[in-house]
Structures are given as C-alpha cells and as structure tokens.
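Forum: Protein Structure Q&A
Topic: Joint prediction for protein chains with partners

I've read a bunch of threads here and the consensus seems to be that you should model interacting components together rather than docking separate models afterwards. I'd like to see that in practice. Below is the full input, 574 residues plus whatever partners are listed. Could one of the regulars post the assembled result?
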Amino acid sequence: MKRTIFNNKLLPWLLLAPQLAITFVFFLWPAAQAIRQSFLRQDAFGTRTTFVGVENFRRLLNSPEYLNSLQVTAIFAISVTILSMGLALLLAVAVDRMIKAQRVYTTLLVWPYAVAPAVAGILWWFIFNPTIGIIPYMLAQVGYNWNHVGNPAEAMTLVVIASAWKQISYNFLFFLAGLQAIPASLREAAAIDGAGPVRRFFDITIPLLSPTTFFLLVVNIVYAMFDTFAVIDTTTRGGPAQGTNILVYKVYFDGFVGQNMGSSAAQSVFLMLIVITLTVIQFRYIEKKVAY
Amino acid sequence: MIENRPFLHLMAHVILIAGVCIVALPVWVAFVASTHGPTDFMRGTIPMWPGPHFVQNYSRMLDRGLATSGTPAVGTMMLNSLIMALCIAVGKIVISVLSAFAIVYFRFPFRGLAFWCIFITLMLPVEVRIVPTFQVVADLGMLNSYAGLTIPLIASATATFLFRQVFLTIPDELTEAARIDGAGPMKFFRDILLPLSRTNIAALFVILFIYGWNQYLWPLLITTSADYYTIVAGIRRMADAVDGLPQWHLVMATAMLAMIPPVVVVIGMQRLFVKGLVETEK
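Posted by a regular:
Agreed with the consensus. Here's the joint model:
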C-alpha cells in the first residue's frame, strides 16, 4: 500500500476507462449473457424463447454425452499433467547438474513454448498419420496397427502427446528455477551425512520443490482443460466416438455447429465455475506456500 | 556440484540429448516433409532427410499460397498475424500499465470494485464464453476487421497485476520527491514510472507477442474473409483441403513458417522471455 498518493478524483477513472470498458463489453456482458441463456430454451425454429429454470443444467447432468465428456476431460488433463511434468522434472534435474552446458541445453529445450497449440496439433497429426506417418510405420514393423481415426484410445494418446509436448518447456523452466533456489548447503550437509544422490533427491529436492510442483499442477490442469482447444480441433475434432471430446470442445461444438444455445450456455456456466474454483485454489495456496 | 559422480553426469547428458531429440522430432519431420515434392509421399512413408524442393515450396507458399483451400498467400497471412500479435501486445501493455497506475497511486471510491472487475477476467478465458462473446462482436459489426481480431483479447488481469507488483516496489521517496518538485501525476508517470518499468515492459512484450501470434479459435471464428486470415488459423483450412488432395509438403512448409517468428523471438530474447514468463505467473 502506497503512503504517497495523488489527489485527483477524475484522473484515475480516465486511466481505468479503457480496461474497464473492454472488460465490461467483452467479458462481463458475455458472461452475463451465458448465465441468462442457460435458463432459457429456444424452439426448433429459433423464434420463441421460453424460461425453463434449471432444466438445461438438469438435462446436461443426465446426458451420457456430457458425463462422457467430463470423464474424457479428467483422463486427458491428468495424463497431460503427469506426462509433461514428469519429463520436465527429469530434464530439469539433469540440466541442474550441468555447469557449462546449462545454457545450451536450456535453449534447446525451451523453444516449443513458442509453437502454437494448433501447429503442435498439425505436427503430431502428421507424424501419427496412419498412411504416411513415421510412428505408425515403425509400429507396423513390430506388428501393431495404429489407426487413431477409428480407435478412441489411440486418438486420446495422440492428443495427450501433442498437448504434453508443448507444455514440457514451460514446466522445465519453472522446475529449473525451483531447483536453483534450493540452497546448495542443504545438499552438501546431506552428502556429508552420507546421503547418496537418490536419497538426497527424495528427502531434500522433492520436499523443497513442492511449492513449484503444486503451482505447476494447477497451471497444467488449467492448460489441459482450457488451452488445448486448438490441439483437439487440428487433430481429432473430439472423435472418434466422442473419445476426445473435452469440455471446451463440446461447448464450442454444441454452440456453433449444433446450434444448441441453451445447452452450450449451461456448459459455459459449468466451465466458469471450474475456472473460478481453480483460480481460487491457486491464489489461496500460493499465498500460504506448500512447503515443509 | 556436490561430489564427482562421472556415471551420473554421463546419464544426465544422455537424458538431455534424448530429451532434445524428442522435443525436436516433430519439427524435424515437418521440415523434411516441407523440402520434398508432392510425389515423395506416395511411397508409403515420409523420407527422413531433406529433399531438393526447399526453395520452390517455400517461395510458392509465401507468394501464392494454396489456392484450392481458399487461403491467401502465406505472406499475407503472416502479415495479418504480425499485425494481430503487435496490436494485442501493445494494447494489453498500454491499458494495463494505465490501470495499474490508477489502482496503485490514487484513492477513489469503488477502487476495490474496479480491481475485482479486472481480476474476474482471469477467470473467463475466451474458450469458456465463446458463443456469447462471438455474438457481442457480431452485433458490434466487428467481424472481419483487425479491431475484432484484437480488441476483445486485450483486457488482461495478469499484466495489470504484474505492473501493480512492479509499482508497489518503487520507493515512496521517489513519488514524494517528484511531488515536491511540482510534478503532476502524468509527469511522474511518464518520467519516472515508465522508465523504471522498462525491462518489465520488454519482458511482458515477448510473452504477449507469442500469445497474440498463436491465437487460434478467435481468428478462426471471426474471420470469414480471406483478407484477414492469420497463419495459425489458416493452416487448418489448408489441412482440411488436404484430405482430398495430399499437399503435405506445402502444409508443412506453412507450419514451419507459422512457428519461425515466435520461436525466433523466444530464442533471441531468451533472458527477457524467462523473466517475463516467471514474473507474470507469480
């Protein structure tokens, strides 16, 4: 809190005006519209709208498609988070041992952050293309027939790999910063007491890294749930058989392609509740710091 | 380094080299594919080494594009992407630096409410409220325009928070000295605050440029005229057409062109990039 401030009643509002105007027109107003529409239903011709109370929400929670989408989203988010954080931690621990080569390796590992999710999707889709991709070709050599166009589990593997690939560099940078913040004296003391590298990793590094890990856990779940729209859209489009139809994709699809406004709005409201919960968790725990 | 363990050190190098290779694999494959001719993919698998058509494929995409997919030349789409990325980065920085200044250096009624209005944008990513936001933009007649591409994306709580943190660390004595010398708020803002936040602005610019360049769903929805296609959203339109007629080499050349500018920014400004990334997420 500043002690020295300027006294002016009008100026602060002028300074805030652009930000508040954009927030109101493009954030709060659409969000309010989504909430309003979630209680309405249009008839088949779009001519009459009636107030239906919580009917849209009730239908959604009873719809096998939506429940499937929830399950798919959970599997997807957990797989992306574990895969990208696991690989990033391994690489960060390895880079942390380096002295001269640290900068070179870091440069070679961070650039995928800059690749658009849509481009990442296209690249992996090409690699996994059943007719000309190199991975299906290699799998065919060992007798496995890869076809993600018809097999939901393989489609899920594809979108998980494409999404995790892009996120490794982000996790890597945060893990590396976390590792470098651990005082060397702690590791040295443990080494003098006879703890080997493995023991030191589990008894010192992992606990002291827990604030970073927790932060990344939330960020990765948010990424997998909300920022992977482009990956899905450029690879599987939610298919086959709804196998990769995650929640953000379903909102878009039901709203724009299916033209089911009531249901799409109700889904938006659910998603907003999820984002709000995740944001609150993130802010509360970052203040407290998960540490020993 | 705590103790000398040559084996572990070797292992670390092996892990890192493997990691670098896995991370680079998809881009290598795309690059190789983009240097071959259209018939090289008919033999079942794609080749693993670059072919002779590099110049031909890239120059064709840059000035003519893939007419069958209805997309314009890649050069045009890259220009649109550049305009969009720059407008979003500059716009976000300008409006958040102003609002952070108002929130930190003034006391006024409803200050808390204004702060919360900004904070709530953190919780409403565009994907979540996509249908109503599209309707608002359509009602305002902003479809197929640079304004429609950029303005809805430039409100940013994270940038406002970042500048708020930066301003809070600037000592009060500076403000007092400026006031004693007779400087008004805007003079103080221009001559003291902005120069002191220069590196933060640059770091944030790198992050926001990448964010703007990589937008996908928004440009895909609000541009129906080929004049406003951005490259990242344009690729999908090309890939759609590819299903009928395999033009893999050209699609992959476009993918390479789509990632070169942001990757160059990240590698070229690595120090600023890491600073921007770590600070905005605090």
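The domain at 6-280 of chain B is CATH 1.10.3720.10 (MetI-like fold).
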